[in-house]
Design brief:
The complex is a heterodimer of chains A (about 260) and B (about 400). The two termini of chain A are about 30 Å apart. Chain A has a single domain, classed as 3-Layer(aba) Sandwich (Rossmann fold), CATH 3.40.50.1820. Chain A has an 8-stranded mixed β-sheet, with helices on both faces. Chain A is built from 10 helices and 8 strands. Helix content of chain A is about 35%, strand content about 20%. Chain A is α/β, with parallel strands linked by helices and about 260 residues long. Chain B is α/β, with parallel strands linked by helices. Chain B has one domain: Luciferase-like domain (TIM Barrel, Alpha-Beta Barrel), CATH 3.20.20.30. Chain B is about 45% helix and about 15% strand. Chain B contains 13 helices and 11 strands. In chain B, the strands form 2 sheets. An 8-stranded parallel barrel of chain B has the order 1-2-3-4-7-8-9-11, surrounded by 8 helices. A two-stranded antiparallel sheet of chain B has the order 5-6. In chain B, helix 7 links the parallel strand 7 and strand 8. In chain B, helix 2 packs parallel to helix 13, helix 3 runs parallel beside helix 4 and helix 4 packs across helix 6. The longest helix of chain B is centred in the C-terminal third of the chain and has 23 residues. The two termini of chain B are about 25 Å apart. Classes of the chains: A alpha/beta (about 260), B alpha/beta (about 400). The interface between A and B is medium-sized, with 15 and 15 residues.
Chain lengths: ~260, ~400
């Protein structure tokens, strides 16, 4: 089981869930706010010490007032690595979390040991615009992010009428997402050209049927990051962590534990 | 007690089956539904109505700002105010609008309002608004900075009106080395400020603290207005003073006809045009646009107590979403509601939905002759006076 902690990151009270034994693995969550301990965390925790912080403004992490854009979040995570005493990190980031990880990696490539980008935001392909995710009804959300939007899983994860406490968390998370990704929409126009600066082994994981950030982005990340590999997961949408937990965990764990690039 | 004629300038020619094909009249409503030839007549009828309000002895008119929507095609309230300015001589012109966060730099707002104030000899009320949620989509402005940008822009504008320039302004969102307002407003220290709101707690606290006037925006159940106005009055007490009724404005559709039955017959189709076609989408609330605390509150209010949820005529009457009837009925209802709400300004929407020019002017005339004088007498009106001695 995991432990809930609050640590001081450069003056920002930051929520962290951590569990498992082994080399530390930092998981950066998506804008959907998977800041609770979930089955995919638990599965990764059988091989790593999983450290899952909540971004500023998400869940019980403070500090949104000090975040103006994605660069501020990248600096926040530099501070977090320092606070945790991690010199070279293994980082896995999904969607928004992938974008943050990439921003960190292009600025301080020496601080990463390995990087996994999962259905990541952060760049823009004019011929494949990222779909609109703001202002959607729950059913539209499910349609957008799941391969099978009618599944029990989809309906349990994106509820039609969430209880108040959960609704409040969703609203808080969406506010952060808007702050970082309203315009330019879910990307930093300067990031794409900077991806060449990433020095560590990188695995790009993509749900083949991602309707929010289509597979073309996975290919673009692979092409722009030196020696990156792309792993495409079949029958999967934007959220492999939920829709294909086993395949996802296996791919990520194998990549992170192997010695080869 | 003051009576304002509020215009939204809705587009009245949406097709009958509009709502079957379009989710909203905002943001994504295709503009091939707009016809500039018809638009010419629509604008001029609406402007005639605004000018007519002065002849009918209203205290003021209100013009409004919305963008990229059929709900109201008045993207620049300042232009409309300017058009009225030279065609009227007594009436107050409340510009409700100027969605401050949409202007960068916001100096333009200070300049244009000052121009209007000087041209009209001090008849301008400066509404200052955050802008509707949909406008953050339409203008690409980050909604999570809406409140910060609003208060910073507001501070800059007030400084421009009250302090000698040039000075420099260094904010988080606006940094201007040389600020120098030419012209300055004629009203001192500056035109009255109205802040419209849908019940956001921090807005009401802020308005109370600044001693401005709070305009409750329409389309809510009367209970929501009551609750919000009570909250506002408490907020002023917390700031150490008692609210003046003129710090509160109630924005409400009003329709008067010869009899109750006739009023319903004439008004009802336009009401449904408004709720079924135009209103949908106004409530689009981008994330961060309002605090999570307020969002939860407004979301709850809007579930059942919002005009969009009104299905029948009885619902409409029960919630006082609009005041409709014979002169006597409207008099009685308004009197009762105004006393309940304790508001000193009624901002009436006398043109609603796709209501024709003829019905609108008839409505205005009946209201002005049969309702307004009685209410002024009974509710104690100071006749409109300019807040400021202006010598021209």
């Amino acid at each position: 089981m995991e432990e809930l902690q609050f640590i001081d990151v450069g003056g920002i009270k930051t929520q962290i869930r951590r569990g498992g034994k082994g080399e530390p693995l930092i998981y950066l969550h998506s804008g959907g706010g998977e800041t609770f301990w979930m089955p995919f965390h638990e599965a990764l925790a059988s091989r790593f010490e999983v450290i899952a912080p909540a971004h500023p403004g998400f869940d019980q992490s403070q500090g949104l007032d000090r975040i103006e854009d994605i660069e501020d979040v990248a600096f926040h995570y530099l501070d977090l690595l320092d606070a945790l005493g991690i010199e070279k990190a293994k980082i896995v980031g999904l969607s928004l979390g992938g974008w943050i990880a990439a921003e960190l990696a292009v600025r301080w490539p020496q601080r990463l040991e390995k990087l996994v980008l999962v259905d990541s935001a952060g760049i823009w392909l004019p011929e494949h615009p990222i779909a609109e995710l703001f202002g959607l009804e729950p059913a539209e959300w499910r349609e957008l992010v799941f391969y099978d939007p009618k599944s029990e899983l989809a309906e349990a994860l994106i509820m039609d009428n969430p209880p108040d406490e959960l609704f409040e968390l969703i609203l808080k998370g969406m506010e952060v997402l808007a702050r970082l990704g309203w315009n330019p929409y879910l990307h930093n126009p300067k990031l794409h050209a900077r991806l060449k600066r990433i020095k560590c082994p990188t695995l790009v994981v993509w749900g083949k049927h991602d309707k929010l950030i289509p597979l073309a982005y996975g290919e673009a990340f692979r092409d722009a990051i030196p020696e990156a590999k792309l792993c495409v997961i079949e029958e999967c949408g934007h959220l492999p962590i939920f829709e294909k937990t086993e395949v996802f965990v296996e791919q990520v764990a194998n990549f992170l534990s192997s010695n080869s690039v | 007690m003051k009576f304002f004629f509020f215009h939204l300038m809705p587009w009245p020619y949406l097709p009958e089956d509009f709502e079957q094909h379009h989710k909203t009249a905002w943001i994504w409503c295709p503009n091939n539904l707009y016809d500039p030839q018809e638009g010419h007549n629509v604008y001029n009828n609406y402007l005639d109505q605004l000018e007519y309000a002065e002849k009918l002895d209203f205290d003021g008119v209100c013009v409004n700002e919305h963008h990229q929507t059929a709900y109201g095609h008045m993207p620049s309230p300042n232009i409309i105010a300017a058009a009225i300015a030279r065609r009227t001589s007594k009436i107050k012109i409340a510009v409700v609008g100027n969605a401050l966060p949409l202007y960068n730099p916001p100096q333009r707002v200070a300049e244009e309002i000052a121009m209007l104030d000087v041209i009209t000899g001090g008849r301008i009320i400066s509404g200052q608004v955050v802008g509707g949620g949909p406008e953050y989509y339409s203008f690409g402005i980050n909604p999570s900075f809406a409140r910060e940008r609003f208060s910073e822009a507001h501070e800059l504008i007030i400084k421009m009106w009250t302090e000698d320039g040039p000075f420099s302004f260094y904010g988080k969102h606006y940094k201007v080395k040389y600020v120098n307002c030419w012209p300055k407003p004629i009203q001192k220290p500056h035109p009255p400020i109205w802040i419209p709101g849908a019940g956001s707690l921090e807005t009401m606290d802020w308005v109370a603290q600044k001693r401005y006037a709070y305009m409750g925006i329409p389309y809510f159940h009367i209970d929501v207005f009551r609750k919000n106005f009570d909250y506002f009055r408490q907020a002023t007490e917390k700031c150490g003073y008692t609210a003046d009724p003129e710090q509160l404005g109630w924005l409400v559709p009003i329709y008067v006809s010869e009899t109750d039955q006739q009023a319903r017959e004439e008004f009802e189709p336009h009401f449904w045009y408004f709720t079924k076609k135009l209103l949908k989408g106004l409530t689009i609330t981008p994330p961060g646009y309002t605090s999570v605390r307020s969002m939860m509150k407004i979301w709850k209010d809007s579930q059942k107590k919002f005009m969009g949820a009104v299905e029948t005529w009885d619902d409409l009457m029960e919630g006082s979403y609009a005041i409709v009837g014979s002169p006597e009925t409207v008099r009685e209802k308004l009197k009762e509601r105004i006393r309940e709400l304790g508001c000193g300004n009624v901002l009436g929407l006398f043109q609603f939905g796709n209501m024709s020019h003829e019905l609108t002017t008839k409505n205005m005339e009946l209201f002005a002759k049969e309702v307004m004088p009685h209410l002024r007498q009974e509710l104690g009106s100071k006749k409109l006076t300019l807040e400021t001695e202006v010598k021209i």
